[in-house]
């Protein structure tokens, strides 16, 4: 193992490996990634792979739009097929409140330059006839949204970073971060010590703990989030379909499996990864009401991952104040897969050039939680 | 009924192990639910139309399905027992254990105090060309079709494997009027008991040793099979291949314990090849490392019906102790002694070794098969291991040894005895033995490995530094290794020395050059071939978890039952790391696919 590094990234999920990729792509040498388990073992490998630009907060919209550009070029830039499909994202509104919110959001999103529109009920029915629309009021739809295979994306970043010279140590855990006089001296791992002046916390569900290692207080908490997949069936669903009030998302993978999930409302913060039967029964009762074709399809598997939540459900991308050169890219609150490319790019620039340059990370700082918190509403 | 959804005990699997566990628990007054997937309880027993071998007290020489019938009768006379047939436990969740009733496609959630997992085993899968064609069956499927449904799998069958299952199923096929064209056996001797083999041979079935199947022929379904001889290192010799006109290829190459549920319950599992693969870690009361979960029967290690029954009783009595505070300890202890006694014969040596790895003592009559070649005292010294136990008329080992360390003695039929004090480790005996029964061994404890000398007679002779497959006694690849030294002998039996991980040092008995494999399926669900897997491994996906996710291997409907071990085997070979070092991957629920309808419409559900 390397004894020293210019940057040590803690976490080999999509975020950590994207940062490693952009750092090395931009010429940085001696980049090390530490992954306590294996690549894609964290939330990344457990997530739904949705890539959506329809957010209620403009900073999220901008970041997602930038990421989509990267996903569109992924094959060309990284030489890897990650099963990226731009089938759009259909957001369903079920009540007056949602109807109003969608109208406001779409106006804001269009202002950011996003191709997004409101679909009336008959338009939805015409384009997506397999949905039982009884209680649906309207929908918003963005055709350039989509989804990809998160494992393949994570592996592709890891591989490209390695080819650029990064060292990725899997099955290697960061145990502590040495800080002397407000400066980072190194990282202690279960396979030895690495000298470094720069640390990036990209540890997903463990962001609070990895913050603590350097004495940086990161206001994140992790929650279990469950997801399930059916046996592969004929291609039915182009878009990813989502509802905030009904609390679900659903999409069909490249290989035909239908994947869906919901948030468990009364779950407490924890690192629990175990799936529950209750989740499965709730999904099995709720989903066929909207998607009747599901009734006779079989559930193959079901698992859980961690949502690393920040107080306003938006990521925290920042450089710590008290400890110099301690960066964090955490608190993705259930949408870190899609934001990883832009965040990776911006954070790499920040580390190399002292600022995020073209990527706007301005509203994502650690200091934003002191006053009133404006929460991102478009989350499941 | 509340006692149904909150029973004292849930027994999963109504084979011999599960039935006996339930009998012990219910007769002590515990409310017991027993769940089985089959249309009739009995597990493997109901498929067996032959007389059983084993211990008289446990129905030896009674036919399998009769045993099942008697046990079921005993159970049906008991209170507190609910027998759920055609039902499958589809997972173990933090909030309960769902049971899927297959005919009605409904589920119900059970919250038992204790669970005994007696799920038996599933069949191992063989890799050969076109092994995804309809007409390629496991022996268990063939048995189920024939003996339970009265349906013939085909008219002309090729049986692959001459273990007891292959032999018995062949005999049963003949009994049912099916033509068994041949039994091919890759090893150079019959795997099962001689009596079973003789029975099959008496029916005119040729048993072709040192043969394997390399290809299924056909477009829509099997129309033939290509078989061929294998060489000393179990590699197919292409020039010997021949076609057999068969419509069915039946695979009987062994069983894998069905550990999904115990793994989902958080029970630790460990790779122990002697017990059939990954098995639950458990104590001698059959308790797994997940406190409330027990195992019994083939799921805890592939063995026999007799031991399955005793284990079931041990588990049942221990559950009684857990829940009632006391149990018939005398009976419990005597059952445990019976298990030990049953396993002390020579054919249980592998089981004993497997149990030892689990930390479970099971004495053997040491004077019979304790290996005199392996006294602790000479650990680390280069010395021969002589695997020559059959008392054959032969003594070149004795006469060739320059130091007089080996004695066969007056009677040339005696087995060789070695005096390690005199031995200087030259290895001449290895190259002189005509039976290729002498191997050299030197443990390297600092490296947790061992140097092993293998007698080798093929051309080309591997070279120093060359990478080779390390083969076990049945030609199965255990791992990869590098040739450390080649000892050329004028008599053409050369010595090839390789380094192997310490755990498998006692198993490595051959080497073969690393060569390419062809278009052969590893994972039928995702249609992945050996090449796909090898390519991914070469691309650097050497962590089993990453490999799985890269290829989606073992993520299909079978949940990895067919491909997990084969993939791990390839990974182990390619990386030179023993299988034990890899985690088997998460065994996610549900264990079998279940429809939305069945999950949503579970009994006791409030809405709908
Ligand atoms: C069920 C589910 C569905 C989701 N669906 C979507 C979706 O559709 N679209 C979307 O954009 N997002 C989705 N998300 C969110 C998304 O998965 C995450 O935001 C994203 O994967 C975060 O990536 P990451 O690299 O920060 O974290 P992770 O992938 O969790 O990676 C962090 C890594 O750090 C490692 N680590 C932690 N501590 C240490 C240590 N001390 N030393 C070394 N390594 C350490 C962990 O092992 C882990 O591999 C979903 C999440 C879940 C759980
Ligand atoms: C051809 C053949 C010949 C044999 N001959 C002999 C012999 O002569 N003498 C001898 O002693 N032994 C013999 N055996 C071995 C013996 O049959 C087994 O060792 C024994 O049956 C193991 O018992 P068990 O209860 O552990 O498992 P099984 O008998 O395999 O029973 C397991 C049961 O669990 C059920 N099950 C599994 N998973 C689930 C789930 N999730 N939910 C619900 N149910 C589930 C299965 O359907 C099955 O009914 C033979 C085996 C075979 C195949
Ligand atoms: S190794 Fe040499 S000394 Fe030892 S037994 Fe064989 S021949 Fe004799
Ligand atoms: S194997 Fe060796 S010891 Fe055994 S009989 Fe042959 S020559 Fe003698």
Helix and strand arrangement:
The complex is a heterodimer of chains A (380) and B (608).
Chain A: E1 7-10, H1 14-25, E2 31-34, H2 43-46, E3 50-51, H3 58-72, H4 74-78, E4 89-93, H5 96-111, E5 117-120, H6 121-127, E6 138-142, E7 146-147, H7 150-163, E8 167-169, E9 174-180, E10 183-189, E11 192-195, E12 199-201, H8 207-212, E13 221-232, E14 240-243, E15 248-252, E16 257-262, H9 277-290, E17 298-309, E18 316-319, E19 326-330, H10 336-353
Parallel strand pairs in A: 1-2, 1-12, 2-8, 4-14, 12-19
Antiparallel strand pairs in A: 3-7, 4-6, 5-6, 9-10, 10-11, 13-16, 13-17, 14-15, 15-16, 18-19
Helix pairs in contact in A: 1-7, 1-10, 3-10
Chain B: H1 2-5, E1 9-12, H2 16-27, E2 32-35, H3 64-76, E3 81-84, E4 87-89, E5 97-101, E6 106-110, E7 114-117, E8 121-123, E9 136-138, H4 139-149, E10 156-160, H5 164-175, E11 179-185, H6 194-202, E12 207-209, E13 211-217, E14 224-229, E15 242-244, E16 248-251, E17 255-257, H7 260-264, E18 269-272, E19 277-280, E20 293-295, H8 305-324, H9 329-342, H10 349-357, H11 366-369, E21 383-386, H12 396-400, E22 406-407, E23 417-418, H13 428-432, E24 438-444, E25 449-456, E26 467-471, E27 477-487, E28 494-501, E29 510-513, E30 521-523, E31 528-529, H14 530-538, H15 544-551, H16 564-575, E32 594-595, H17 596-600
Parallel strand pairs in B: 1-2, 1-7, 2-3, 7-20, 9-16, 10-11, 10-16, 11-12
Antiparallel strand pairs in B: 4-5, 5-6, 8-17, 13-14, 14-15, 18-19, 21-24, 22-23, 24-25, 25-28, 26-27, 26-29, 27-28, 30-31
Helix pairs in contact in B: 2-3, 2-8, 4-5, 5-6, 8-9, 14-16
